[in-house]
Every structure is written in C-alpha cells, then in structure tokens.
Specification:
Chain B: It is found in: Cell membrane; Membrane. Chain B: It holds the Pfam family BPD_transp_1. The complex is a heterodimer. Chain A folds into 2 domains: 247 residues, P-loop containing nucleotide triphosphate hydrolases (Rossmann fold), CATH 3.40.50.300; 113 residues, Roll (CBS-domain), CATH 3.10.580. Chain A has 13 helices and 16 strands. In chain A, the strands form 4 sheets. Chain A has a 6-stranded mixed sheet with strand order 6-7-8-3-9-10, with helices on both faces. In chain A, strands 2-1-4-5 form a 4-stranded antiparallel sheet, with helices on one face. A 3-stranded mixed sheet of chain A has the order 11-12-13, with no helix packed on it. Chain B is elongated, with a radius of gyration of 21 Å. The chains are: A alpha/beta, B mainly alpha.
C-alpha cells in the first residue's frame, strides 16, 4: 500500500504543484491519477520513487517513509513506465528489458532469460529481442517499456501517461493488455493520465485532481460517473456520462427470451404462422446468422436460403448493459442477441427487456 | 621546370626511407593532438553539458583560438617549445582539436532524449553509472562525427609546420618548391590525401562497430 499523508510540493518560486494530498493506493489495485495539465498528477507520481522529493508531508510505502530509502535502491524496487517508452536506443530490446536485473547484479544469462519471458508475456514476438528500439513501432516500444518495468518483478508499478503517444487503436490494445496482465500479476499500480476515458477504463479507483494539486474526488469509476463530487468533476467527466455509466452495469440483469431462435435448416413454412416481427437464424453450432422477418419470406425452401439482416451480440455474464444496448442498435430488429463465451446464441434481449433495464439504472440515479 | 616529368619514380625509390620517416613524423604530429584533445574535451564537454553557463565561454574561447592562423601560433610558440620540434606543432593542433571536440561532446550529451535520461533515473541508475552506461554511449555518434573533422583537419594542418621547420610531409612541398622539382610536391600531396582518407575510413569503421544501433538507423533512413 502507498500512503500519501498531507503531501505538498512547493517550488522555490512559490508554485504549488501538489497541495496537501492525502490518499491511499491499495495493494494489488490500479489507482489512476487524472486531471488537466498543471494538476500535479505527474509530480505526485514522481514523489513516490523520489524523482521529486515533497516539501511537506510524507509518502509511505508499506508503512516506510520513502525519503528514508536511498533513491537508486528504492527505484530498483518500483517499476516505471514513461511516455514514449524511454527505451535505451543503444541497447537491444532484450537488454533494455533486462536493465533492472542487470542493475541488481543478476548474471547475464538469468537476466536475459527473464527478459525473454517478459517479452512473451507482454505479447511480443521473440524475434524482436535482438533488434534495436528504433526498429520497433511505437506500440511495440511501449510494450517493451512495460516488460522492462516488470523485469525485476517489483510489487509497485508507476505509469506516467504510458499510452498517450500512440494512435487510438494501438492505445486500446495496450490498455486491454495491461488489464489482462494485471489480472495475472496483481501489482499495485499508479497510473497517470489526462484522459478521463482511459482512467475510467483502467482504474479500480480514480483520483481526480484539480489545477493547483488538490484532490477533487477519489472513487471507483461507476461511483465517479454516477455521483461526481462537484461541478469541476462533472465537467471533467464530460458528455455522455449517463451512457458511459452503463459500461459498469452488468448485462446479466437483462431478461432474455429463448423462443425467438430458429435453426437455418428449418422450412420457411414452419415460421410463417408466428406473430413475432423478427427471429434469429442460427447455424448448426448455434452461432447467429442474422435476423429474418417472417412476414416477408419466400414461398418455400429452408431459412438458410433467406438473406438475413445484420445483427449485434453481447456475451452474457461478461459484457455490460452498454454492450447489449450497442448490440441492439446494430440490428434492424432493435433487439440484442445474447451469446455464451463460445459464440452460441443463448437468448434475445428485446427492446422491452432493454427498456426495463435502463429504467432500473435511471431509477438508481435518483438516489 | 620545362622538360622535367611530373613524377620521377627513380627519385621516389632513392628517397623512400626518408619519405617513410616524414610520413611517420606526420602521423604522430597529427594524431597525438587528436587523442590528447579528445581526452581533454571529454571532461570539459561533460562540465559544459552539466553546467550550461560554462558552455558558451568555453566554446567562445576555443573558437577564438581556432580562428588564429596556425603559422602565427607556431611562430609565437618557438621561443617556448623550440624551433623545429614536434611540440611546436602538437600544442596548437591540440587546441584546434579541442575547439571541434568540446562542442561535439556537449552536443552528443544533449542529444540524449529527455525521456531516455529520465527512464534511466527511474530504473535506479546511479549518476555515474548513468553517465557511463547510458549518456556517453548515446553521445558516441556525435562525438565520432566531430572526431572525423578534427582528425582530417589535423592531418592537413601539420604540413603548415614545414614553414617553421617541422611539417612532416609538408617538408616535401618546401623542398620541391625551392628546387623547382615537382616530384616531392606530388608525393607529399598524394600521401597526405591517402593518410586523411585512411584515418577517416578507420573512424567510419569504428563508428559502425561501436554504434550498430546508429549505423543501422542511417541505413534505414537512406533506404526510405
């Protein structure tokens, strides 16, 4: 656990970067510091590994005041990922990753073995190990940066806007990768960003800081979206707060109908009598093929020969209400198809079911 | 000169031992200043990169020295270091080399990207280790570029020393001129050019070998 206890950073010219910050970063969780430029988020991060020392207050790492630890020793026990990766251009990828093990005096073989293991873990082709950083794309470099930070297996990871210099698609995949890694590793992570969407996506807890280095709100993302502490936080969260909140409502609560599914091998005549406007056609494995409208079907043949309309799916038990709503909007029927982990249709969330679920969320917002 | 041929090979054959001696003398007088200049430029360049206010005065002084005509400096030094001694040539050329190398060291060190330096700090490098293992290696391509300029210009400047009695291959120019005999002049020019080309080539090879990460980068750029 990292504890900020009344931490202040005041520079000699009188600028206050961080003002009386007190909060706890729980072990094994991702805590995101987010805020506009000048809010002291990076300064706060750098005070943890003493790249900056506070001018008041204390930072405790598992109860020990960090200022009592020699900086190089302290830093070798804390992983650090910087924007633009900060890789050493003159060292091969494998040696970049092995940096901290080398500093800790591991022998070369052990350090390199460990580096290879980590390259694999962050999803990099091992053939990249012998290349130099400039031969890698920005996204690959950033993965190397993460691997390097993890090399000596530090319990704490500091990430300073690590994904803000890569394009949005790569950023999204790096974010997914971090969440996947964190599910395996359970590090104590402090993540700094100016991007509130990134904060909400990654954070177990989000600390919103305002200019002048004051804590505006510290909460889990769902609470932050539902109950912003004040106008500053509300404004910083931006538009679509209500819709984004749906990402944190599980899609499990949706009432599913199991009677709207028909196999592709069925005869057209078998569905002609139904009162339903739309049915889902599934293949032999139970995977969705699309929507059909029973009222405009050909005279004969099987449903496999009928052109099906587009559809959207969400995974029952995993995806949020927002994903279900998105799936519904992708279908002309306005219904969302629920599938299981292997892609088999398990039911349909109709517009009525979605409406009921949204009503429950809106009801919750009242309190 | 008239009917005299441009090169008389028999003269070269007869005087070969002497030519070799002049060549060796030329190499020593050209390269000692570069090596000593580099050894002095490293600490001064480090200081210039660390304390920026030192940089301009140092480089300014060096540029003033660089602008002094070499012949004038040689003559001024004669009472101190002696007529026709190696020192009379080596001392000024060392300053010329430093004038090129100090800015190269400073530029090399400031070419280290800020995020690289910061990540080295954050990984737990001590300041000395960071300098030796991260900053200096990254500075090498820029320093080597300066070293190439310093080496070639040093090789060419040694010849001027012939006017104060110690100019390595430059002696051949004076000799040929005084006797209206072109062969020594041609030999001197060709050997000086070959010497400069070989020295430069060796530095290029050293650069490829020391900084594969940088030569590969320039090859990629050329290909693009």
């Amino acid at each position: 656990m990292i504890t900020f206890d009344g931490v202040t950073k005041r520079y000699p010219d009188g600028t206050v970067a961080v003002d009386d910050l007190s909060l706890e970063v729980p072990t094994g969780e991702i805590t995101v510091f987010v805020g506009p430029s000048g809010c002291g988020k990076t300064t706060s991060l750098r005070m943890i590994n003493r790249m900056i020392d506070p001018s008041g207050g204390r930072i405790l790492l598992d109860g020990v005041d960090v200022t009592t630890i020699d900086p190089p020793t302290l830093r070798r026990g804390i992983g650090y990922v910087i924007q633009q990766a900060g890789l050493f251009p003159h060292r091969k990828i494998v040696d970049n990753v092995a940096t901290v093990p080398y500093l800790l005096g591991w022998d070369k073989k052990k350090a390199r073995d460990r580096a290879m293991e980590l390259l694999e873990r962050v999803g990099l082709d091992l053939r990249l190990a012998g290349r130099y950083p400039f031969q890698l794309s920005g996204g690959q470099q950033q993965r190397v940066g993460v691997a390097r930070a993890l090399a000596a297996d530090p319990p704490v990871l500091l990430m300073d806007e690590p994904f803000s210099a890569v394009d949005p698609i790569v950023r999204a995949s790096l974010q997914e990768e971090l969440l996947r890694l964190q599910a395996e590793l359970n590090k104590t992570i402090v993540f700094v960003t100016h991007d509130i969407d990134e904060a909400i996506k990654l954070g177990d807890r989000v600390a919103v800081l305002r200019v002048g280095g004051r804590l505006a709100q510290l909460a889990d993302p769902a609470t932050l979206l539902a109950e912003p502490a004040d106008d500053f936080v509300r404004e910083f969260l931006g538009r679509d707060r209500g819709i984004r909140r749906l990402s944190f409502v599980p899609g499990d609560g949706l009432r599913l109908r199991g009677d709207l599914t028909v196999p592709a091998s069925a005869e057209v005549s078998s569905v002609r009598g139904t009162a339903e406007a739309w049915l889902v056609v599934v293949d032999d494995d139970g995977g969705p093929l699309g929507w059909i409208a029973p009222k405009d079907l050909p005279d004969s043949g099987t449903l496999a020969g009928v052109p099906a309309a587009p559809y959207g799916t969400f995974v029952k038990g995993r995806d949020s209400l927002r994903s279900a709503l998105d799936a519904a909007l992708l279908s002309p029927s306005g219904n969302a198809i629920a599938v299981d982990g292997s892609g088999r249709v398990v039911g349909v969330a109709t517009r009525e079911a979605l409406d009921e679920a949204l009503a429950r969320v809106a009801d919750g917002a009242r309190g | 000169m008239g009917e005299e041929p441009l090169v008389r090979w028999d003269w070269i054959g007869r005087n070969w031992p002497e030519i070799q001696e002049l060549l060796a003398d030329h190499v020593i007088m050209a390269l000692v200043p570069v090596v000593v200049g580099l050894l002095l430029a490293l600490p001064l360049g480090l200081a210039g990169a660390r304390w920026r206010w030192l940089y301009q005065p140092t480089v300014g002084t060096m540029n003033v020295i660089y602008s002094l005509p070499s012949l004038a400096v040689f003559i001024v030094l004669i009472p101190i270091t002696g007529l026709a001694t190696r020192a009379t040539i080596i001392v000024p050329l060392t300053f010329y080399a430093m004038a090129v190398l100090i800015p190269a060291v400073v530029d090399g060190l400031t070419s280290v990207p800020d995020h690289v330096r910061q990540s080295a700090v954050a990984m737990g490098f001590t300041p000395l280790r960071r300098l030796l293992r991260v900053e200096l290696p990254i500075a090498v391509p820029v320093v080597l570029a300066g070293l190439r300029v310093a080496t070639v210009s040093s090789i060419s400047l040694v010849s001027v020393g012939a006017l104060v009695g110690r100019g390595g291959l430059g002696y051949l120019f004076i000799d040929g001129w005084q006797r209206q005999f072109p062969t020594p002049i041609v030999v001197g020019v060709v050997l000086t050019a070959i010497l400069a080309a070989v020295a430069d080539l060796l530095l290029v090879v050293a650069q490829r070998w020391l900084t594969p990460w940088s030569t590969a980068r320039s090859r990629v750029r050329e290909a693009a």
